[in-house]
Amino acid sequence: MDVLEFLGEMVRFGVRADVAIFDPPYSPRQIKECYDSIGLKMKAQDAMRTNWQAERNLIDKILKPNGYCLSFGWNTNGMGRKRHYEIVEILIVAHGMGHNDTLCTAEQKPPYEQISL
Question: I want to staple 85 with a disulfide (CB 3.0 to 4.6 A). Which of 19, 62, 72, 79 is the partner?
Fold first, then answer.
């Protein structure tokens, strides 16, 4: 199931979480590998899914106030300041020669719900 469908269902059913783990594919190659592994065909627009804003917006709806999001990738963008998340910790995981490091960002959601204007 595509992540947008999955997260959309969680929002629709009113799921609220204390912790979310956000570990998207880091590159178009990894997107293709993930799609191939579940029998889906990668489309051109899938290869352009690099900022994951729609996914982050749904995660924000699911996380409770004061909840934590653990994001993994090649950067520490995480949920971001725009959503008022606070970075609690950053961990760099080295995988050895020939492999990029993984950056792990732990962020805490603010203690209040965001109000959309």
Answer: 79
List the domain range (segments joined by +) for residue 100: 3-108
Domain count, the chain: 1
Going edge to edge, which strands form the sheet with 86-93?
A: 17-22, 63-73, 102-108, 86-93
Residue 114 in domain: no
Encode 50-84: b = buried (16+ Cβ within 10 Å), e = exposed: eebeebbebbbebbeeebbbbbbbeeeebbbeebe
Return the structure tokens found at 28.
Answer: 């178009």
Tell me how far apart the terminal alpha carbons of the chain are, to the nearest angstrom. 32
Q: 48 is written with which tokens?
A: 């352009």
Q: Identify residue 58 by its one-letter amino acid code.
A: L
pLDDT in tens, 50-90: 788 999 999 999 999 999 999 999 899 999 889 999 999 99
pTM: 0.84
